[in-house]
Amino acid sequence: MIRISLFIFLLSLTISTLKAQNDIEEADSSLYVPAFERDTNARVHFGAVFGLHYQGINYSTNPDPLYSDSIYDWSSKNHIGFSFGIIIDTRLNPHWNFTSGLSVMIQKLQLNYTYQNQRYEPTTNYSTLQVPLWLSYAPKIKIKRFYYGGGLIFTTDISRHDEKINRNFLINQNNLMVGIGMGYRMRLPSLSNLNFDLQLHYGVINMVADEDTFYNNSVETIYPWEISFYVSLD
């Protein structure tokens, strides 16, 4: 009788445990379901991302009269850029995700000035290859949920050679941006995840190259910034 009672108790405990685990897995949207493998235990996902960016620069000029008397009346203009690439999304635990990948960004830089009483508004194409290292946190574990994050973005200039050498202001090849943002994730009927992200990025490396030219000496610092909106599918 004791054995039967013990067996019934253990069987009930096992069923209750399995049911609780199943409820947790159903509520945990971070247990990804890739669009092709349908592997609910996959922790790493590959996907595609498209971004739209509103971009500009913060700058400071050289106050030395040698430059300020001949080149002055500075201003900058913001531009719209776009990007596309692949993402690698890794589930660290039910609340935390780490995202990386590789993207190509197409954008423009513009710094206007007056030189010898003539107005110049040069615009240069500035294409970059970007590698984000982004950490995000979701307070609630739901199939549809908000999340918040921040991280670093490494960039390198991949513009054409003639565009690089014909710029009035020569800029550094590489840069580093820091960012914060928030996003929203939803699961599609295909069991893939559709993500919407709004992020703010700011460059932390001075873009002005260490070149002894009149234009580069007249500007002390150039730091890029951007407001980015991403749509990704994984």
What does this structure look like?
The chain is an alpha+beta fold and 234 residues long. The chain has one domain: Porin. The chain is 17% helix and 53% strand. The strands form 2 sheets. The chain has an 8-stranded antiparallel beta barrel with strand order 1-3-4-8-9-10-11-12. Strands 2, 5, 6 and 7 form a 4-stranded antiparallel beta sheet that branches. The termini are far apart. The relative contact order is 0.19.
Could you say what the CATH topology is called? Answer: Porin
How are the strands of the largest sheet arranged? 1-3-4-8-9-10-11-12
Whole-number total of structural domains: 1
Query: Helical proportion?
Result: 10-25%
CATH class: Mainly Beta
Most strands sheet: 8 strands, antiparallel, barrel
Named at the architecture level, the CATH assignment is Beta Barrel
Determine the number of helices (DSSP H or I, runs of at least 4 residues). Answer: 4
Strand content: over 45%
Mean pLDDT: 83
**Strand/helix succession:** HEHEEEEEEEEHEEHE
**Any low-confidence stretches, pLDDT <50, length ≥5?**
6-11, 13-40
List the helices and strands and how they pair.
Elements: H1 2-27, E1 44-61, H2 65-68, E2 71-76, E3 79-91, E4 96-106, E5 108-115, E6 118-120, E7 123-125, E8 128-137, E9 145-157, H3 161-165, E10 174-187, E11 193-203, H4 214-218, E12 219-233
Antiparallel strand pairs: 1-3, 1-12, 2-5, 3-4, 4-8, 5-6, 5-7, 8-9, 9-10, 10-11, 11-12
